[in-house]
Amino acid sequence: MAYPISLPAGNPLITLIHPNSYTWLIELHNGQDSRLTVELVDHGLKPALDIVERHWRENRKNVGPKNPEEGKGSLIIVGRRDQDKFFSNGLDFPNVIKNPGFFPVTFDPLLERLIQFPIPTIAAINGHCFAGGMMLTLACDYRVMTDGTQRNAWMCMNEVHFGATWPVSFAAVLRAKVGDAGLRRKIALEGHRFTPKEALSAGLVDYIVKGNTAIVLEKAGEIAQAVSVSAQSGAWGMIKESLYRDALEGFGQDHRTRVEETAVQSKL
Prior knowledge:
alpha/beta; 2-enoyl-CoA Hydratase, Chain A, domain 1; 11 helices; ClpP/crotonase; 268 residues
């Protein structure tokens, strides 16, 4: 496998690299704020996840006493690496609301894939992390964030402030990853902007680090090294599938919801 791999071909919005034997890294770089578009998700992130999983599974075939490192694996997702302002500014909302298939066809399958991905996933949050961008990080297994001292950085599900309803999938992920009902209310119904310190205190991120994107990635790499061995047995994804079964079952409800919503709006 030849890295780096830029996707989609001809209009790269993500880049996939394999910096060491146990780590893969996806960089989002759709403009400066890495909006999550149909093109980025369907023709960037999803194919990249396919490549990572296929490569990892090929490596696992060689696990044995002579190859003790084979089969280890971790995936890091980071915002554009040449800036420190955004991890992702969320969904491409004006186009999302015109596309009734966006959640059931495009975004839900991405979240579902990450929720049960067979190797540990780490979100390296190198700046603001809004709406769909925050949901992307919650679908990962670990989150490390800049502490915001060099430049402000917030985590926020701000849909309530601009009148956007949540798909069932968002609520399913939130219930799976955030156990406290009061905190879920603060995230979903109040649209609170969490500072890095607040996010750490609330358990929304696992670590905060003082520094720029390079420092965030350094910490993400340390986490990747520590947890990559958990992928070796092949059980990581299967355990997650059981652990998050309620959330995974919730994803299938968005098709009906979006179709009904479109039908109602057409009558207004």
